[in-house]
Design goal:
Number of helices: 6
Strand content: 5-15%
Order of helices and strands: HHHEEHEHH
GO biological process, one term: sporulation resulting in formation of a cellular spore
Organism: Keratinibaculum paraultunense
CATH architecture of the largest domain: 2-Layer Sandwich
Helix content: 40-55%
Distance between the termini: 83 Å
CATH topology of the largest domain: GMP Synthetase, Chain A, domain 3
Protein name: YhcN/YlaJ family sporulation lipoprotein
Strand order of the largest sheet: 1-2-3
CATH class of the largest domain: Alpha Beta
Shape: rod-shaped
Largest sheet: 3 strands, mixed
InterPro entries: Spore_lipoprot_YhcN/YlaJ, Spore_lipoprot_YhcN/YlaJ-like
Oligomer: single chain
CATH superfamily of the largest domain: ANL, C-terminal domain
Number of domains: 2
Low-confidence stretches: 59-85
Mean pLDDT: 72
Keywords: Lipoprotein, Signal
Number of strands: 3
């Protein structure tokens, strides 16, 4: 009887010890939120309001960390967001307006709207005397040449004459020109790219 109690007690202690040893540390901070203030901290009671920070060197431990650790590709929302940070939204809007103006000068085009995100460009056009919204290969090549000659950093050009897509592109371009960031349209930008066959 005593032998059984001893084994039950030992089994219980081993079970408790293994349970405690295998639990996660709830107080550990997630990666990327840790703050390293400096190497020469002298226990001055540093607070977030930067009081008592004399002699403490700030270090940015996250300077080489990229968000979303995804390799860039031409049609991904994360890529669109990352690549858009290379220029200011105002620069992108000006480039897009410049390209749209040059495309509108083509004799076959009534109007054009352009969206640029990094090295991807979406062009929506309203073609003269074209009820179906169809576009010839020759016209697509002309538009692609205009885009690439105007901004040689653009590698991916997608062109559409579909009236619904043109309206969406025009509305997005107007919102971006009024200060709304392209990152707010990342999902819609990606969806439009999927619906258009890209010109390579």
């Amino acid at each position: 009887m005593k032998k059984n109690k001893f084994f039950i007690l030992m089994f219980t202690l081993i079970l408790i010890a293994s349970t405690i040893g295998c639990t996660s540390n709830k107080f550990r901070q997630p990666i990327g939120t840790e703050t390293k203030i400096g190497d020469n901290i002298t226990k001055k009671g540093v607070k977030r309001d930067n009081v008592n920070t004399k002699g403490i060197v700030k270090k940015d431990i996250n300077k080489d960390v990229r968000q979303n650790q995804v390799l860039p590709g031409p049609n991904t929302a994360t890529d669109i967001t990352k690549r858009n940070n290379l220029s200011t939204p105002d620069d992108m809007a000006k480039k897009a307006a410049n390209i749209a103006e040059k495309i509108t000068n083509l004799k076959e085009i009534n109007s054009a709207s352009v969206l640029i995100s990094g090295n991807s460009c979406i062009v929506g056009v309203d073609i003269k005397n074209n009820i179906e919204g169809k576009m010839t290969t020759d016209l697509k090549q002309k538009i692609e040449r205009i885009v690439r000659n105007t901004d040689n950093s653009i590698k991916y050009v997608s062109i559409t004459a579909d009236p619904d897509l043109y309206t969406r592109i025009r509305n997005m371009a107007a919102d971006i020109a009024n200060g709304r960031p392209i990152s707010g349209f990342a999902n819609e930008f990606e969806e439009i790219l999927r619906r258009i066959t890209p010109v390579k």
